[in-house]
Amino acid sequence: MFSLLGSLLLLVTGVTAVCPIPAIYIEPTITRPFAIQVQNASYPVVHNRLMNLWQAGGGDQHLYLSPAGTPTSNLTLVDGVITRLPIRAVINGEYTATDNTTKLFMTQRGDPRAFFDVGYGCNQTDDKLQTELHFRGRGTLPGGHICVRLASGNRYEFRYSPPGNTASGRLCIKVTLAIMFQETAVVEEARELDG
Ligand SMILES: *[C@@H]1O[C@H](CO)[C@@H](O)[C@H](O)[C@H]1NC(C)=O
Ligand SMILES: *[C@@H]1O[C@H](CO)[C@@H](O)[C@H](O)[C@H]1NC(C)=O
Ligand SMILES: *[C@@H]1O[C@H](CO)[C@@H](O)[C@H](O)[C@H]1NC(C)=O
Ligand SMILES: *[C@@H]1O[C@H](CO)[C@@H](O)[C@H](O)[C@H]1NC(C)=O
């Protein structure tokens, strides 16, 4: 009865964060290949899109929301760092003062890394338990969050917003980064290409 009521409420309101979250510590290393799904149900234009790679110079990869770039389901997390050897996710460059954000991209070079913890959360759409990457900080600076922002070519790029950021000259949408293991991600990508 209780869960029926819960389901009804979910249907009516579309509201989330009610699924039971296990109080378990998860090591910030995930060796099983995954894709990253971006979520913010308040912004349907970015909600449930995947993080894709986009070939840049010198072996670097830009990060864009699908359908831009190349679908990428073989990411891993190594000590809190998103990794696809030999490149890793870092935060540096293309700083813009209007929103006080900095670019997140992948490189072999030693720029300040983006660190994540692994945790659970509830899917904002279907309220199922999901594994998420919770942003821990940029290099040695803790806090802040990851957001996506409209860039040229109608693409959404990934940015870092520092802790206590009050600059709001440009919209950078704060997102949840959910883990999708390979099989699921491939299906999701096919669905996206279909429709
Ligand atoms: C990941 O997949 C891409 C595309 O299939 C491939 O080119 C690349 O070598 C793979 N990298 C790793 C580290 O698995
Ligand atoms: C969250 O739920 C929606 C709707 O069922 C689904 O499309 C999406 O892939 C789910 N995300 C994850 C990470 O499972
Ligand atoms: C911009 O970010 C820096 C940290 O990178 C912070 O010290 C500064 O207060 C921020 N500025 C605004 C206007 O939020
Ligand atoms: C969605 O994005 C807005 C704008 O960045 C942000 O204020 C809000 O916290 C985000 N919602 C979630 C659930 O992350």
TrEMBL record:
Keywords: Signal. It comes from the Eukaryota. Residues 1-17 form the signal peptide. InterPro entries: DUF7909. Residues 21-181 form the DUF7909 domain. This is DUF7909 domain-containing protein.
